[in-house]
Design brief:
The protein is an alpha/beta fold and 137 residues long. The protein has 3 helices and 8 strands, in the order αβαββββββαβ. The chain has a 6-stranded mixed sheet with strand order 5-4-7-2-1-8. It has a two-stranded antiparallel sheet with strand order 3-6.
Length: 137
């Protein structure tokens, strides 16, 4: 019986460690014109834990971003409608016109400074708690 209880505690702890919550903040874009522009033309990095959240029009695996006219390297996090991480791509190349997308359905895409995923140990199935601000710094 004690072994069973110990095993249950270990599994719960492992589950909690694996599925973390991350607190980030920033602005959200929804309108087609805003979605298309994203962080284009920005030359200064975002603040620590700051990002731009894209509310996509569909929950699909066709949602994508690119780095055209984007001068700072970014990490991109694909999220489902519950703000759970379904996929991510790290260290995107500035000014690239290559389309970045996930093969997993997503409702939101979060763009953040390059290195955010590594620095905060963001993993698949983690939850993003995103606080909206009026505008990016």
């Amino acid at each position: 019986m004690i072994r069973y209880i110990f095993l249950c505690i270990v599994l719960i702890v492992l589950f909690m460690i694996r599925n973390k919550r991350h607190h980030f903040y920033g602005s959200m874009v929804v309108e087609p014109k805003e979605l298309k522009k994203g962080l284009m033309f920005r030359k200064q990095e975002l603040n620590n834990k700051e990002g731009l959240l894209f509310k996509m029009n569909t929950n699909s695996n066709n949602n994508s971003v690119w780095m055209k006219n984007t001068y700072i390297s970014l990490d991109v996090i694909f999220l489902n409608n519950n703000m759970k991480v379904v996929d991510y791509v790290e260290n995107l190349t500035p000014l690239s016109t290559k389309s970045i997308q996930s093969d997993k359905p997503s409702t939101y895409i979060l763009e953040m400074n390059s290195g955010t995923i590594k620095n905060y140990s963001v993993n698949i199935d983690d939850t993003i708690l995103f606080t909206l601000t009026d505008e990016l710094s």
